[in-house]
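PROTEIN DESIGN WORKSHEET
SECTION A - STRUCTURE
LENGTH: 440
TOKENS:
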């Protein structure tokens, strides 16, 4: 489909009129094409603007992209916001970290809708990438045309059609040199796998777009059916009854919702392990030292381990198998020497003199809250775990409390009232070791 026709059709279908729309502008062909098409849709009454996120990852080339976007928007009379971000260290790929920074910038610096320039080519690559890595129906459905306030008007347009449009209108653009290499997994698929597949089907990207539309529709239907089935099965105590009578597709979706709602891992192997229990009953432990998932008399429920707790000793402490928590008492004058040896010193250091009564090292307990050092408001441990800690790690977090309440949480650091100050004379330092044997 021609880009301008696709954008007009998209705006009509989703009734996008008389509203603010900010185009995400990288300077590449796709985003420039999208911005031009939105500019041509004046009859829709859009309050059009653009945003460029400057990652600074490619040195002079990144600065070139920013200059291009500024000059383009000035020539076209479109307001532009440039946001400079620093991409942090990330457990995943640099691409994923940069993407998270972009969407954080969109959230902080835009109002109304944000239009991104994902094309049919991007959508097929996403579907293929997810298929290679493993996914379900929702993943195979590719990129949604609308997600919350994010719009993808070019999803029915191929990259080749974008480039043709720009040539016909004599519009320039910049090229990200990293897109030309095979260093990233997505680029490898784009340059190596996609051309081979297109030899078998030259209309591959359009076919994939149609398939994605079918899958999204069926995913929506199954998601609604699963929500209804889950609501019917849910008991007042949080258990589920009657899953065995459901179609296997609905069983899996209900099990995934149950596991995720209880902070348990919910990848395919875990879901399959629980589904296997529906026929004959039994129980399975999805992570070592964690909660047991049980099926008995047609009921799916959890068995929680008893709360682990031990009185904190100076020296070695063991709450979970395979982990030792070393506690050291350090005088203030020895702080600099000690900090040079142990990393993340402040995150694991408390004011020993403020401890009231007995200090206890323990596992997660209901209702844990504290004001972390450096913050001014209470943080719910449950909410923090759900937002910041992977499910597979939540069951083995260490907490330290005294008679006054929570003093320290592994990953959150000390409570504000337990943080080391200029008045601190003695410091309690905690540091964790992985051990091969059980500690006693």
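SECTION B - SEQUENCE
RESIDUE ASSIGNMENT:
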């Amino acid at each position: 489909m021609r880009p301008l026709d696709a954008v007009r059709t998209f705006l009509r279908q989703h009734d996008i009129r008389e509203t603010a729309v900010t185009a995400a502008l990288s300077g590449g062909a796709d985003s420039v094409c999208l911005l031009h098409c939105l500019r041509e849709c004046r009859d829709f009454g859009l309050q059009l603007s653009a945003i460029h996120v400057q990652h600074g990852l490619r040195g002079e080339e990144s600065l070139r992209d920013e200059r291009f976007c500024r000059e383009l928007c000035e020539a076209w009379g479109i307001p532009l916001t440039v946001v400079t971000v620093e991409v942090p260290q990330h457990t995943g790929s640099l691409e994923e970290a940069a993407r998270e920074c972009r969407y954080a910038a969109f959230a902080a610096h835009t109002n109304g809708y944000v239009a991104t320039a994902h094309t049919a080519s991007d959508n097929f690559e996403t579907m293929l990438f997810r298929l290679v890595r493993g996914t379900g129906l929702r993943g195979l459905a590719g990129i949604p045309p609308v997600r919350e306030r994010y719009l993808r008007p070019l999803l029915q347009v191929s990259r080749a059609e974008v480039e043709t449009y720009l040539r016909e209108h004599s519009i320039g653009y910049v090229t990200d040199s990293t897109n030309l290499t095979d260093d990233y997994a997505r680029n490898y698929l784009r340059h190596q796998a996609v051309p081979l597949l297109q030899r078998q089907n030259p209309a591959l990207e359009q076919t994939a777009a149609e398939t994605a539309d079918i899958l999204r529709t069926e995913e929506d239907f199954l998601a609604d059916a699963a929500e209804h089935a889950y609501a019917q099965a849910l008991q007042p105590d949080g258990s589920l009854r009657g899953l065995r009578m459901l179609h296997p597709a609905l069983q899996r979706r209900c099990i995934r919702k149950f596991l995720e709602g209880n902070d348990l891992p919910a990848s395919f192997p875990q879901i399959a392990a629980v589904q296997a229990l529906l026929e004959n009953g039994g129980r399975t432990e999805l992570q070592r030292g964690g909660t047991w998932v049980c099926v008995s008399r047609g009921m799916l429920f959890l068995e929680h381990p008893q709360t682990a707790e031990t009185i904190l000793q100076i020296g070695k402490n063991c709450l979970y198998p395979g982990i030792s928590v070393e506690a050291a008492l350090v005088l203030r004058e020895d702080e600099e020497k000690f900090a040079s040896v142990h990393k993340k010193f402040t995150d694991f250091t408390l004011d020993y003199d403020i401890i009231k009564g007995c200090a206890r090292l323990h596992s997660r307990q209901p209702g844990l809250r504290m004001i972390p050092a450096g913050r001014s408001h209470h943080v719910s441990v449950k909410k923090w775990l759900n937002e910041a800690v992977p499910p597979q790690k939540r069951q083995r977090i260490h907490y330290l409390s005294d008679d006054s309440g929570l003093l320290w949480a592994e990953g959150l650091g000390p409570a504000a009232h337990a943080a080391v100050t200029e008045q601190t004379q003695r410091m309690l330092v905690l540091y964790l070791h992985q051990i091969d044997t059980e500690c006693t």
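SECTION C - NOTES
Residues 236 and 301 are 12 Å apart (CA to CA).
The chain has three domains: 3-214, 234-303, 309-434.
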